Known about the structure:
Layout: E1 7-9, E2 15-17, H1 33-38, H2 61-80, H3 94-102, H4 136-153, H5 175-196, E3 202-206, E4 208-209, E5 218-222, E6 228-229, E7 240-244, E8 252-256, E9 259-263, E10 265-267, E11 270-272, E12 276-277, E13 279-283, E14 285-286, E15 291-292, E16 298-304, E17 307-317, E18 330-331, E19 341-349, E20 354-362, E21 368-370, E22 379-388
Parallel strand pairs: 3-5, 4-6
Antiparallel strand pairs: 1-2, 5-7, 7-8, 8-9, 9-12, 10-11, 13-16, 14-18, 15-17, 16-17, 17-22, 19-20, 19-22, 20-21
Amino acid sequence: MEKLLVELQDEHGNIYYLHTDGRVVFCSDGESVESKLNKKVNAADIINNCTSTATNKPLAAAQGKTLWERITSVITSLTNHQSSADHDGRYYTETEINTKLNTKITASGGDAADAKVSGFTANNTSFPVPTANQSFRILWGIMAKFCNDVKSSCFLISNIVNNCTSTATNKALSAAQGKALWDKYTQLNSDKVAKSENPLYFRGTITGNLNRTDIPPGYYVIGAPGTTSNGLLGTSDSYSLFIQFGDNYKTQMIVDGSGPHSRSYIGSPAAWLAWSDNTSNGNGTINTTYVTKSNTTFVHWKKYGRMVTVELYDVDTKAGYSTENVMTLATGLPAPYGGEIMACLTGHDKSANKAVQVRLRVDSAGVLKPWYIGTSTVTTITGSFSYIA
């Protein structure tokens, strides 16, 4: 496009351009004034520091000089450094650095003697165990928890309890108390064996085959017919008393309306004998030296197998005799199992006109005597007692 240049000149030779604008004013090379101005740098835009981040503004020459001086100083320092003495304490030689590095802990070794752990990582696992690749913070947290668990779980000698009255649940019992408990257990077993030989313990209802040698000694009840076998009436025994004795012959007794019947397990080889009626009875002989005998006075006994029942009636003791194994009431009673038995009956002290307790004894010879009540008084004894012969 052809450019037209328009100008006005006054009488003094001044030239004026109409609509003067950089876009329409051109230089002799054909470039607009505006374009040439855009390529120039304003003095105000020159940056005179090294902290600006502007990317479209120039740096002052003075700052270039400063940078050059600093670079030159560093180059000079590096060029002139020749020995370990040519520096201050902030710098180390390669040898010094290697020496210090050799004292540090590495993945493959090192000395941790003076290393410190500023804190532990808490661990809540019971008796935790370390694993590989754990940091010292975690490892020492594990060790701390493990030691606390051991401390709280181990028993100190001072915490061992030497009695059987403590209710502590976190203390151990001494071996001496274990022996004491064992002795008690042994004694109880011994007592149990001794008591098991005594049939005077009720054990409930018995059922099944009576041809057994493992029936615990004691009293039993036979219930409805057909609940037992091999009894006195085969399977028809009912509502009767069954007694299992604790002797070596496994003696059994059934007491029904016809009386007592017994049998034993004896022989070689051992076998059950037939049931037999073993009821017997008799009268004790009254000793008139110590007893005032009337027409109604008697000491009568009845034996059901090994069970003996003794009945006394109007037995009046005379006064003034010692009961220290001297006074005798009657003789001729069945001998008790185990040597002797003791019994207690109610008597009437005629001199004091009051009821008294009279202790009696049947010794191994079947002699009935008072048992250590001091000097005798005129006392009437009436009653009954039982024992095992």
